[in-house]
Amino acid sequence: MNIFTMVGIFRRILLLRTPLRHLRPHRTLSFAARLSPVDLNAICCSSGQFVASTRKLHVGTDGPKSPPAAGAPERLPFSRVTEEDLAFFRKILPGRTITDPDLVESSNVDWLKSMKGSSEVLLRPQKTEEVSQIIRYCNSRNLAVNPQGGNTGLVGGSVPVYDEIILSTSLMNNILSFDSISGILTCQAGCVLENLSLYLEERDYIMPLDLGAKGSCQIGGNVATNAGGLRLLRYGSLHGTVLGLEVVLADGQVLDCLASLRKDNTGYDLKQLFIGSEGTLGVITAVSILCPRKPKSVNVVFLGCETYEQLLKAFQLCRGMLGEILSAFEFLDSECMRLLNTHLKLPNPISDCPFYIVIETSGSDPKHDAEKLHNFLEEAMASSLVSDGTVATEESKIKALWSMRERVTEALTHDGFTYKYDISLPLEQIYQLVIDMRQHLGGRAKSVVGYGHVGDGNLHLNITSSTKDPALLAAIEPFVYEWTASCRGSISAEHGLGLKKRNYIYYSKPSQAVGLMGNIKAMLDPKGILNPYKTLPDDVK
Among 270, 290, 310, which residue terminates a domain? Predict the structure, then answer.
């Protein structure tokens, strides 16, 4: 049965209950469009663009001190950058030691524009050896360093808190090797995720992770934060797909664990320490990752459900009937749809519903996949689990449907100041948190929305207000963390802890585990120069 026949049957089934809107053309905006293929070996910015500023930097411990970011601890007794330090950096990074405040500014501010550091130095190495020299020198001088990839983090982990030196990996963007038989890709940490995806697609492979920020985020940052994303249901987390890492340690040593073997049971698996460590244990400079084959058949279905209970039953049915071709199962609520309509002018592709599901299938046999999808849709409608829906098989329409899920974060930025929570919960509890938060806040919040990855139990709870509101934040926290802990959930599913959530770690980890983390940090970075004030709570020294 071809896909067009299946779609026709699906439409006739839906018409029994509610009018199915045909998939109409969606506005394809440049934000969601794929980048054209680029030469990853090219430097994204000519070093000639950067002219070192001659303004006077802090000398010794003198000079102005910036006010701490909200919730930040006091500045630790790190040294301040001197002219002698700059001379050293300029010697090893000619033209890539940036001190012009206008050029450093964007690297001081996080993606949400909620955190701003006061670093005066941006370093842009191209090679691992340069990173090693920088870190060794900074360790000897007791200079704090803030490793930075694409700066798309949401918890304040990617920008300085005070005047830490920013070490950008953006020029470390070379692909080192790709094995077309095993599918193992080895590349530098600064490669942009979308550029890697385009490189692999030309070779009939794909990356095992896909994120809404793929056009900016870098693979080193993805690994450092253990990013999850839209494909985790199918391909698992980076703890499984990353085969090896090259990491520069706090003393400048280069730890070469850049293996390209799927099985290696010799001693401790050290790379796992750095996956999700947020740059606090070492600077990731290269990654070896296992990539799956590009599917020959991809279908995306956008469905509407009347209740969250129906959504969960649809997920159970989906896993059972789609099996090996199921690659994503995402959801968003009606409040998300309202924001997409209002702020981004994205039209709802189906009738209004309390909940929406995005299902993706990917496989090797279009006929086989279409038949399985048809059988699932027929059963879902017969069981009254979904009330409306539409199917896309063409790439442009697939992108349009995916944009309804991927661009929720963008829509939220237009709704006001956003408080973001990235929670793991048992599946049956996921949306109850959204309901309880709305009741708890009453009219104090502008919007309370829920969306995320049903397939791996990850809720993105977002709350907006017209402006930054300390009273609203006090009502949200610690309520959201206490609620999560009562369900034995995790306060950070995939975004990390960074600066914003470091002190809430005890809601998800016992004190013994946190203490052991502190011991590991003290062993690998005894002076604490790597991404200070992040990940670990203030009471861990």
Answer: 290
